Amino acid sequence: MENRRKSAWKGIVLGSLLVLVSISCAEPKAPQPIQNDEIANVISQMTDIMIHDVTNPPLAAKFFAYASLAGMEALSYQEDSLSLLSQKINGYSATVNKIKQPEKYEHRISAVFAMLHTAKKMQPSGSLLEVYEDEFAKRCLALGFDQKIIDQSKAFGIEVSGEILKYAATDNYNKTSGFPKYTPLAAEGSWYPTPPGFFAPVEPYFNTLRPFFLDSASQFKPISPARFSTDKNSPFYKMMEEVYQVELTEEKKLVAAFWDCNPFALEENGHLMIGMKKISPGAHWMGIGNIACKVNQVGFDKAMEINGVLAMSLHDAFMGCWDEKYRSNRIRPETIIRKLIDPNYKPLLQTPPFPEYLSGHSVVSTASAVVLTHYFGENFAYTDTVEVKFGLPTRDFEGFHQAAEEAAISRLYGGIHFMDAITEGQKQGREIGSWTIDKLFSPLSKN
């Protein structure tokens, strides 16, 4: 009996040892993958800093473009399709050098750190992203990545970012600060700063930058705006009356507020002027792009491509629009309506500080809709939650073009644009978006 007990115990001990040996020899558990919401989180963090810094809309698009491009470049070492896309970016291959990869690293971690480091260096208050960097590193640890892998991935991402920052430094933006200060024209019908801030004109030389995909900022130059006239039978005067007489239903007010996206808005509070926290049109569309990626459960690599192409398209759309704004220099509805019709007129939305023609939101929204429709299709239903954190309700759309149409007409409801600036802005946006997609994905596209 005693011998049987000893044999049984020996069997139990031996079995336990075999289990322990088996466990110790098993492959370590693979880390959980990096999800596409990390890209959306970086874009959101960048947007918060843009609000903090009151970053103007064209410059915001520039920041998004280079940060997203850094993420694409970090992934391109493992994803050939991204390398092929980057070859079609103006001046890219001649400036950005490939660097040596670490023996062991996770390229998606590198992509996030490349985005963060680029944003840190480009945005005035970019150092605020350091807290988020630390949080991301901790999340990677929690996903099961080894600290050494995280450190090597971060170091590689920073090196990649350095190449992108070198490329960004050659886009001519740094030269614009040395150009003559822009002075409003004295000619009748020309733009003049508007209340309550009477801000100086924003980015009058943005058209001199190097575009990512366009041949030049003037590639899709629109027709000239309706000629200024005080004749009540003239097309201009009739458009002015259209703005003044627009019937503002509650729905139209909601649409105007939803697409306001004016970082320069001020609110009068007694004798004080308080800045309103609002995002730029580009930030809104970057948010929409990431909503679509989440709804469609797009993989990290594809989501990075979508963010990059969208952001660079936004940049070029602002270039094309701003090129025309400072060429035509047309007066804003608020200014001329007060002079000719109603001295007490106040538009629903505050007038942004730059000339009227073309409508920037019409251009960039339409271009964005073309890009996102390429990736997600014509009838992509989604709920836009981008403005919820700023106190606005969600809105449902059956597709990106429907959203872009609403964004465009919101400028009429808001009292800040004439109708031809909206329709011609949409036309330019379609041309820029289509050019970009054809250049990147058509078999017959030009490099």
Give a verbal description of the structure:
This protein is mostly helical and 447 residues long. The protein has 16 helices and 4 strands. The strands form 2 sheets. A two-stranded antiparallel ribbon has the order 1-2. Strands 3-4 form a two-stranded antiparallel ribbon. The longest helix is centred in the C-terminal third of the chain and has 29 residues, at 300-328. It is elongated, with a radius of gyration of 26 Å. The chain starts with a helix and ends in a 6-residue tail after the last helix. Mean pLDDT is 92; it is low at 1-6 and 11-26. This is PAP2 superfamily protein.
Number of separate strands:
4
Helix-residue proportion:
55-70%
By secondary-structure content and strand pairing, the structural class works out as mainly alpha
DSSP helix count? 16
- What fraction strand? under 5%
End-to-end CA span: 86 Å
Approximate shape: elongated
Organism: Rhodonellum ikkaensis
Signal peptide: 1-26
Keywords: Signal
InterPro entries: PAP2/HPO (IPR000326), PAP2/HPO_sf (IPR036938), V-haloperoxidase (IPR052559)
